[in-house]
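Chain X:
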Amino acid sequence: MTNLETLKQAFITQVEGVATALVVLKNRKGTQVGICNYGARITHFIVQDHKQNWVDTVLGFNSIKEYLNATELYHGVTAGPFANRIAKGKFTLDDITYQLEQNNGLNNLHSGTKGFHAQVWDVVQRDNTFVQLSISYADGEGGFPGPIAASITFTLTDDDELVMDYKASSKKDTIINLTNHAYFNLNGEGSGTILNHAVKINASSFVEINEACIPTGKFIEVENTAFDFSVLKPIAQDIAQEDAQLLNGSGYDHSFVLNKSVDGLTHAAIAIGDISNLKLEVFTEEPGMQFYTGNFLNAQDKGKAGNYYERRSGFCFETQHHPDSPNHPHFPSVRLRAGELFKSKTVYKISS
């Protein structure tokens, strides 16, 4: 097993004059989680499987240089201020139209090239099992009204739960949508395809998208479709169907409408590795979850084990509000009013 403490030196540099670092979380079981303040990203999530083998379940790299040079920009990041896509990079608040960077064709993706994923966050406080990171975004930065202050606290429990507590506030009314973009492979990063993982998603409908992966505004019932994950099934089972939605997303790249619990956390999803038998469970307070099957991983980035990350070698469970929410009034609101505090919690739990 890699001792993450030995990697700390490899994560020390400066990005635009701000120091980067690797913070290592460890619990009583020996589970390790790596958190880098560049992008407030999860770099490692190393757990024991049923055979007592240590498995790193998250795609990524062992140095900051590799993250800075990677083709895939979003390995493990905290995406914001607005995660996912906004059509034409435009939204309107109180009759004022705001124009964001169009970095994904005509659309905005993950708040543009200078979103939270591309910033060095401040390490506010930490110990062996948690770290709190914070970031400030000036008024107008990235095109967003503000200024926006955001934080995330990662906590590793002795039950191998990685708890993510998000907070944000703004001095002007703005929009907020925060998520984590870890790519998981429960057989181990760099071990090959995730298509034989079994997945269950607690959702009765999903958000229809067009050819640019922008929501049409319509919710589609999952029953009798390729998007029915109401019981565990292999990702491969339906992903190759001749389905217009799968074609638009080049696979699964869709926001599922979670069957929300009345209070507290919703048990959103389960994934089980076909070789490791490791089980990932996701719990969240968010109304949606983007299930993304790594359709655009392109074998350009060599991972921690020395293997290239090929198409569909990792998947994401991104808990969030739906894409393009500011432009669909019937979607759950992403408006953050001046002086109010946004709070949201998501948990990734891995067990053998």
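Chain Y:
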Amino acid sequence: MTTTEATDELTPQQKAAAFLVALGPDTASAILSFLDEDEVESIAQEISRLGRIPAGTLEGVLEEFHNAIISEGTGMSGGIEFARQLVENWQGSRRDEIMQSLLEAAENRPFRFLTDLSPDQVVQFLVDEHPQTIALILTHLPTTFGAQILSLLPQAMQVDIALRVAHMDRTSPEMIERVEEGLRGRLGNIGTADLKGPKDGTDSLAELLNTADRTTEKLILDTLGQTDPELAERVRALMFVFEDIVQISDKDLQEVLRTIDTKQLALALKGVSEEVSDAIFRNLSERATETLREEIDFLGPVKVKEVEAAQTAIVAVIRELDEEGRIAMRPGAEGGFIE
């Protein structure tokens, strides 16, 4: 796996967190001085969830930030201790409040002790558990970590567990505590955890599949499409939204633009971020760009639901092209090779 592929499964927030881990708490704190307090709290929470960062992933993150320095070997670790040092060195007015929030979140996060193990170890530990128990655990683990575990489970279990994640209702704190105590007992540890609040099962499954490898994603979605088409469509809708076109390579985006009507595209671009519009315009010819800009200006004020409908239609085209193998919605997630 290349360093670029190693970072494809990370969200922008996770990449930023990994980058700060690489810099160390002192240098990272200096960078935090340029962020507002909500951003500091958000990134500190993300760092606390990172756990161990593989060397290849770390190198890919550093390359993306155009940094030539990379630590080789076993990689580096984020985690609660790094996040604590980071916030301690930060001089914001809400430092104590954010520190308390960080420590409380880490202490109460269900099944957090499993993040001290590798995904392989967790799979070996959980493979004989009931699928409902595994689904419950995956919905409370960091998303990337949970996706790695889902991908490593036997294929015969993956779809069943994915369905259970999607249909997961709120689980009582007492049940969470009993399951966790049982797992801790098996590992020879002692401790309890509480449930901070409900998680939507469909959202959880979409998050897991967004960071899983392409083979796992396709297997689960294809099977869902046969057993529960409505659920499969809801998951797909959560997995890729119009704004995610910035993640598509320029080559693939050009393929998408060749299949979309100019009027529909103009409507979809009303009110989007500069990042999204730039991605579109840089992949059009000068003449096509001029035509599209004129079409956007000609539209004038439009209803939000009309814009959303146009964006939804374009996402459907993107998904169809992805299914046909003509583009990749998530570059680097194409799965393995076929001889």
